Structures are given as C-alpha cells and as structure tokens.
Amino acid sequence: MLRFAVTFFAVIMSSTCQKYRCLEGDTQKLKPSPEPNMQECTLYSKSSCCYANFTEQLAHSPVIKVSNSYWNRCGQLSKSCEDFTKKIECFYRCSPHAARWIHPNDTAAIQAVPLCQSFCDDWFEACKDDSICVRNWLTDWEQDERGENHCKNKCVPYSEVYANGTDMCQDMWGESFKVTESSCLCLQMNKKDSIAIKYLLSESSEESSSSSSSSSEERSCQNKLLKFKKLKGEESEQ
C-alpha cells in the first residue's frame, strides 16, 4: 500500500512539475514567472519562460537573427510571414505551456503541439511567396563551427516546398506541431489560446483533442470561446 502511495505521489508530482516548468534551452528559465517589460511575445508576459531581454531580438523588423539562427538566408521575410514566424518562436521560447508537450527524448524540444487548421492555413498564405532553402528548419541547415545556419540547397518559394498549411505546420519544425480537426481544442498563438489551454491541460483532453467535434469537451470549449469573443467585442465597443 505504501509503495502504491509513493508511486501515485510521484506521478502527481511529475504531472504538476511538467505543467509549471520550462523547456531546457539557453534562453529559457527553469520555471515561468512574470516579465512585464517584454518588447515582443507579450502574450506570455504574465507568465513567461523567457526573459524580457530575449524579446529584443524580435522587436525590430526585419528580424535578421535569433540566437544563432539567421532568418534572412533567402532574403528578408515579408512582414506578414515574419509575424507568424515570431509567434512560433515566442511560443517555443516563452510560453509557460510549451513544456506540456515536451519531447520524450529531448527536454529542449516539443512534440505534437496541436495547432488549429485555420492558423496553419493563414501562416502558409502569409509565407507562400517568400523564399526558403530548407524543408525542416531543425535539421536541414548546414551548421558552421559557430553553430550558425547556412543553406545547402537553392532558395525557392514556400509554395514549392510545402503543399499547403497542414504540410508546412507538420514538417517545418519536424515533429513539433500537428494540425487537429478540432476548431477549438487547438492553439492559434493568440489570446483565444487561454480558452483551449484549460481543456488541453486536463487529463481527459489527451483523447478528446483528437475526437470528433461533437465531443462534450469540444462543445464546452466552443461555448467558452463564444463568450470570450462576445466579451472582447463589448470591450472594444466601449
């Protein structure tokens, strides 16, 4: 009985720590805390896994380099494409929830973070005419002795590398993201995520996030989202 109690406590503590820890990395903290002076990634300012000074790299457009990674190897990104790339970078570096999807074999990586189809479609639309020389941003670069990225292949439009938004979201960052059928139990990298996260962090959402949109969790999420939109609409009118 004691062995069961110890095991159960360990499982609970592991789950709790996972929710309140950050990914390992040169810009991440051990656990999230407020960062009121962030210049970018302000979606996570109340509870951030990155320090405010990291966001200085993203504060001025065009973004040229973040840590050792150059964003302009095929020319500067368009403003619309850059904005989506920033959202992904901010989530990975700063979100207090990113570690919920920590890769089982790499504590500095994420796996199967559920993205909304609409987000991926909009991201692809924003970047399709920009140029790129890799398909997988995590593995396809040639790295020099300083760890900086260089093209191994010629630059071509995003639209020649990825078939659509789903293809881009599920390949551009390796296994990091997946596109879900749900329109609510998924992330859009904006304030609406506060609704989805509550369901995605629950134990039951492991199954519900991949179930049909008629699930009770999906309906509950949609109802909360409608109330959120209505409230925000009333605030903007005032």
Give the secondary structure arrangement, pairings included.
Layout: H1 2-19, E1 28-33, E2 48-50, E3 65-66, E4 69-70, H2 79-94, E5 102-103, E6 106-110, E7 113-116, H3 117-127, E8 131-132, E9 142-143, E10 149-150, E11 156-157, H4 158-161, H5 165-171, E12 177-180, H6 193-200, H7 205-208, H8 216-237
Parallel strand pairs: 7-12
Antiparallel strand pairs: 1-2, 3-4, 5-6, 8-11, 9-10
Write up what this structure looks like.
With 238 residues, the chain is an alpha+beta fold. It has one domain. Helix content is 38%, strand content 15%. It is built from 8 helices and 12 strands. The chain has a two-stranded antiparallel sheet. The protein has a two-stranded antiparallel ribbon with strand order 3-4. A two-stranded antiparallel sheet has the order 5-6. α2 (79-94) packs across α3 (117-127) and α3 packs across α5 (165-171). It is globular, with a radius of gyration of 19 Å. Mean pLDDT is 86; it is low at 1-18 and 203-214. Residues 21-188 form the Folate receptor-like domain.
